């Protein structure tokens, strides 16, 4: 091609896919999203009890993943299913997940296990969840149970997914359960989740070491976005973008990575300074354009179906910032887009991968969000992010064009000229 459109991964980067238990499993297991649905809070009224029925179709999904040549899978387990009541453990649920993990291993799919991905059992939620210090031990007990139950089958862990998104949507904007609007609780939740991560980090290492495994890797999934001033010459825009960056992600990232709790987080004596990441885990989607104290989107930029700006360079800018804090291998644990008709997903993936391949950072994994379309929290079933289309009525799975592109990239170990012309070139983003 000669115009620099193709690239090879050359053993530097492995492609995988990601999912989260609540978004795919289905079932009414007494968690805060079952409850949020019952309160009528899902925009399109779809029920997380349906989702993609993965709890029953997991084998078929694993087979499809293997057919698509996917070798890395980030998946979650549902706390409310494993511990339906305080102090109770459902052994059948543990056996179920063990069977799934063993099967994935047989298919040569290597797993990255997420322990907490937004969802709480109602018994924990009713106690105030992560707003109260005395509740943190419940989470740590769950972590211990997870390692005891699955420690022989998983060596890589995400303790907590996106503490900043969980804290702000649940306790600041009130859009997610429990629907509160309190700055002080938002900050408390972020601080407490940081403590949970660091304690879990040590616990997982300690336990697996005792089990005779020396290959443990632990991190938390960090939702990061670029915050840029709308007008770089405007002082207020500049100050607000720095402030929002710190409030939303900067402080919590630093606390969780190094134990250094800076404003607005609450300092704690419980945790000593140190290094609490074996790899940097980044979930990247978009950029916020700042002109005041709130969210904003750049005008005339390419956008996805939810109006999020598509800004591939931002992934590398964010990764670089965290790498300056702690030099670790970088996994992109989520990157993807809401494209209901699958008309620009190939282009989106291509441009983000290209940005990765052009950077000098040690980015070694890329997990696409997500494998199948799934229950997208308050957006319900109407926001599709998958490489595989799901017909929710019949639960039929159909690999999308972007899914085919993904497989072809894995087979070719990169993007060839032919792949570029076939999948990327014909696609266009929405502008506006
Ligand atoms: C979350 C996912 C979610 C995705 C797309 C991430 O913030 O971890 O659960 O589906 O974004 O909104």
Number of H- or I-type helical stretches: 14
User: Which regions are unreliable across 5 or more consecutive residues at pLDDT < 50?
Assistant: none
Per CATH, which architecture? Alpha-Beta Barrel
The share of residues in helices is 40-55%
| CATH topology-level fold name | TIM Barrel
**Count of domains:** 1
Question: What is the assigned CATH homologous superfamily?
Answer: Glycosidases
Q: Tell me the series of helices and strands, N- to C-terminal.
A: EEHHHEHHEHHEHHEHEEHEHEEEHEHE
Q: What characterizes the major β-sheet?
A: 8 strands, parallel, barrel
Radius of gyration, taken over Cα atoms and rounded to an integer in Å: 21 Å
Descriptive notes:
With 432 residues, this protein is an alpha/beta fold. The chain has a single domain (7-431), classed as TIM Barrel (Alpha-Beta Barrel), CATH 3.20.20. The protein contains 14 helices and 14 strands. It has helices at residues 21-24, 32-38, 54-67, 79-82, 91-106, 122-126, 136-150, 163-171, 183-210, 235-258, 313-325, 345-358, 401-412, 417-424, and strands at residues 7-8, 14-18, 72-76, 110-116, 156-161, 217-229, 280-290, 302-303, 330-335, 363-369, 388-391, 396-399, 414-415, 430-431. It has an eight-stranded parallel barrel with strand order 2-3-4-5-6-7-9-10, surrounded by six helices. Strands 1-13 form a two-stranded antiparallel sheet. A two-stranded antiparallel sheet has the order 8-14. α8 (163-171) packs antiparallel against α9 and α9 (183-210) runs parallel beside α10 (235-258). The longest helix has 28 residues, at 183-210. The two termini are 31 Å apart. Beta-D-glucopyranose (BGC) binds at residues 20, 23, 161-162, 165, 223, 283, 334, 369, 376, 385. Beta-D-glucopyranose binds next to loops.
């Amino acid at each position: 091609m000669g115009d620099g459109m193709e690239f090879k991964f050359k053993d530097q980067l492995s492609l995988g896919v990601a999912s989260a238990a609540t978004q795919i499993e289905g079932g009414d297991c007494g968690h805060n999203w079952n409850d949020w649905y019952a309160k009528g809070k899902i925009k399109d009224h779809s029920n997380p009890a349906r989702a993609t029925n993965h709890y029953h179709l997991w084998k078929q999904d694993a087979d499809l993943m293997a057919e698509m040549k996917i070798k890395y899978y980030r998946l979650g387990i549902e706390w409310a299913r494993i511990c339906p009541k305080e102090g109770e453990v459902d052994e059948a649920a543990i056996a179920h997940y063990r069977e799934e993990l063993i099967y994935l291993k047989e298919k040569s799919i290597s797993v990255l296990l997420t322990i907490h991905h937004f969802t709480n059992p109602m018994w924990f939620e009713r106690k105030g969840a992560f707003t109260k210090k005395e509740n943190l031990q419940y989470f740590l007990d769950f972590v211990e149970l997870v390692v005891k139950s699955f420690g022989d089958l998983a060596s890589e862990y995400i303790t907590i997914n996106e503490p900043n998104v969980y804290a702000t949507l649940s306790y600041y904007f009130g859009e997610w359960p429990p629907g509160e609007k309190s700055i002080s609780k938002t900050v408390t939740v972020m601080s407490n989740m940081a403590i949970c991560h660091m304690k879990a980090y040590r616990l997982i290492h300690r336990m697996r070491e005792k089990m005779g495994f020396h290959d443990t890797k632990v991190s938390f999934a960090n939702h990061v976005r670029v915050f840029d001033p709308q007008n770089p010459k405007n002082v207020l825009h500049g100050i607000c973008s720095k402030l929002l960056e710190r409030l939303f992600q900067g402080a919590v990232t630093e606390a969780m990575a190094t134990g250094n709790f800076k404003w607005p987080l609450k300092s704690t004596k419980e945790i000593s300074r140190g290094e609490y990441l074996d790899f940097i885990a980044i979930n990247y989607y978009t950029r916020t354009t700042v002109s005041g104290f709130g969210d904003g989107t750049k005008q005339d930029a390419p956008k996805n179906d939810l109006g999020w700006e598509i800004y591939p360079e931002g992934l590398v800018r964010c990764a670089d910032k965290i790498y300056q804090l702690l030099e670790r291998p970088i996994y992109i644990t989520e990157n993807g887009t809401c494209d209901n008709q699958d008309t620009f997903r190939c282009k989106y993936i291509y441009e983000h991968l290209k940005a990765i391949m052009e950077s000098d950072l040690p980015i070694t994994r890329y997990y696409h969000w997500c494998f199948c379309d799934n229950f997208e929290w308050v957006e319900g079933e109407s926001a599709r992010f998958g490489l595989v289309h799901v017909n929710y009525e019949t639960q039929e799975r159909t690999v999308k064009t972007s899914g085919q592109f993904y497989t072809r990239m894995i087979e070719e170990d990169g993007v060839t000229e032919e792949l570029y012309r076939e999948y990327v070139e014909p696609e266009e983003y929405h502008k506006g």
